[in-house]
Amino acid sequence: xxxxxxxxxxxxxxxxxxxxxxxxxxxxxxxxxxxxxxxxxxxxxxxxxxxxxxxxxxxxxxxxxxxxxxxxxxxxxxxxxxxxxxxxxxxxxxxxxxxxxxxxxxxxxxxxxxxxxxxxxxxxxxxxxxxxxxxxxxxxxxxxxxxxxxxxxxxxxxxxxxxxxxxxxxxxxxxxxxxxxxxxxxxxxxxxxxxxxxxxxxxxxxxxxxxxxxxxxxxxxxxxxxxxxxxxxxxxxxxxxxxxxxxxxxxxxxxxxxxxxxxxxxxxxxxxxx
Length: 274
Hints:
It contains eleven helices and six strands. By secondary structure, the chain is α+β, with helices and mostly antiparallel strands. It is globular, with a radius of gyration of 19 Å. The chain has a six-stranded mixed sheet, sandwiched between helices. 49% of the residues lie in helices and 13% in strands. A hairpin with a 2-residue loop joins strand 4 (110-114) and strand 5 (117-121). Helix 7 crosses helix 8, helix 7 (183-202) packs across helix 9 (224-232) and helix 8 (208-218) runs antiparallel to helix 9. The protein has two domains: 5-148, Beta Polymerase, domain 2, CATH 3.30.460.10; 155-273, no CATH class.
């Protein structure tokens, strides 16, 4: 493990879990192990001890055989059963080194871990965004620098992936807003819209907090109170802003139609819904 990892992640109990994970993974993978990295909120600066996950990536030399995946599944279940604080917050993937060079999400599902349960999961449109965060901001637990594994990702690719996420995930919510009945998800949706708008404008990724501060200065003032309430939300508090949040999602979708990346299929689909 990196000598200064404890300085990079200022949460001793998280470091304890990461030490355990790294050791177990290396024992199982042996020559297949290339590196282990932290991304997500811990890397981007959005980490909230009350609700954030610990997002990790393990890079492997090649696709893992079934027996090795079974061993990893048992190992992750054992870590959760150990009752280490943060053990249930581990969320991550095992990805072959070659796949990291692909702009298009690979066709072969990856071993994916969430709350101790390992299963095969297909890559989604977040693939490009995850690779960018790992390359530019990833915390090295062990292995080579991320920039030696992942090529530079163009702003147009980040915008394109962001638009695809908008289409696949957020557009349907306009017509079935069941998820937005959670105050936590309302806050998440608002801050995510800020981040999406920032990426479409600037062609790069920033933390939700940075994107929210930018949105407060750059967007119509009618959204200011909504964004501030999302930024201030804490677990257990209630947000009665469903209609306002739906309006902000709709604004983001309408604004995204101005993107030069938006052509053909997505333009027609969104015009139909909006």
